[in-house]
Amino acid sequence: MVAKQHLIPSKTSNGWHHLLGWILVATLVIVAIFYGGRTILDNEHVPVRLVVYAFSTQEEVLTQGIFPAFESKWEAERGRDLIIESLFGPSGTLAGQINLGAPADVALFSNERHVNLLKLGKQIEVETQPVVISCTTIIIATRPGNPKDITDFADLAQPGLQLLHANPRTSGVGEWAILAEYGSAFLDSGNQPTAERQLKDIWSNVRLLGPSARATMTLFEMGAGDALVTYEQDARLALERSVPLEIVIPTRTIIAQHAAVIVDKNVTSTERPVAEDFIKYLLSDAGQNIFRQYHQRTADPEDNNFPKLIHPFTVEDIGGWSHAYEELILSVWQQEIDPRLDLESISVIQGSGK
Hints:
Layout: H1 11-45, E1 48-55, H2 59-78, E2 82-89, H3 91-99, E3 106-109, H4 112-120, E4 131-142, E5 163-166, H5 172-189, H6 192-203, E6 206-210, H7 213-221, E7 227-231, H8 232-240, E8 246-248, E9 252-262, H9 271-283, H10 285-293, E10 311-313, H11 320-337, H12 346-352
Parallel strand pairs: 1-2, 1-3, 5-6, 5-7, 9-10
Antiparallel strand pairs: 3-9, 4-7, 4-8, 4-9
Helix pairs in contact: 2-10, 3-4, 5-6, 5-11
């Protein structure tokens, strides 16, 4: 009978196995640290990308002024490249796009109401507050020589006037203009029916609606209409482009306050510090000076670099945005004015040679 042999593991062999195991683990940790460190270093050299959505009349001041200046400053301070991507369009349309998933990290809106739309769409936190970055005022652009003798909003109701207007359904300036046309009469008279009558009489002369401030100004440049209600800032930019027009600043008009906000749902932990630095730059002396160069009043509407306004007012003077939007835009304009508009097609106006 062959005796069974029992193999007893050697203590020396078992020790080597433990040692080899520790060496393997240590090697893996070193490799992980090495490549992890390289990834971090590599990421520090990858450009940061910031996506900015802004309403139409901000294109020049941002692309020609703010973006290049901020990029240079930020890159010099951080030692890292920055790429800013931008999209411009009607303020209300942009808010709708962001709510549907558009990738904006920062949004510049023509008014505070469009920021509130993002809160309703859960794109920004309820406690997130917009920042007023610049102001302008609502003016009337007329043909050279002001042949219709327009001096105030009330003159826009004169019979036979051909008036251009941005569409309040999509455009922030369209909303601001309604508030200006109504508020000027309400604050003069203290009478709501009188103010509503002026608003309706003005809109009886509206012959063409543009989707944004810039699109409506383009139609005016093409020769459509006798007058246009728009931003002072955009009218002055048009004068710089040698567009033949005159600017009439009504005696009582509204200060349009433009707002910026970080889109909480979209911005990443890497992008948020850049977004915060960007908004700080907009409010800095350097940023505000660039806004001035492009004919925007600064966040302080009493900026002495512009013609003094005689009787300016704000949306708060007519009840705030919630009240103004519900009572004027949704109720009076959408229900009573819009269904009765007598609009001409763009092709008819182009063909008329006006």
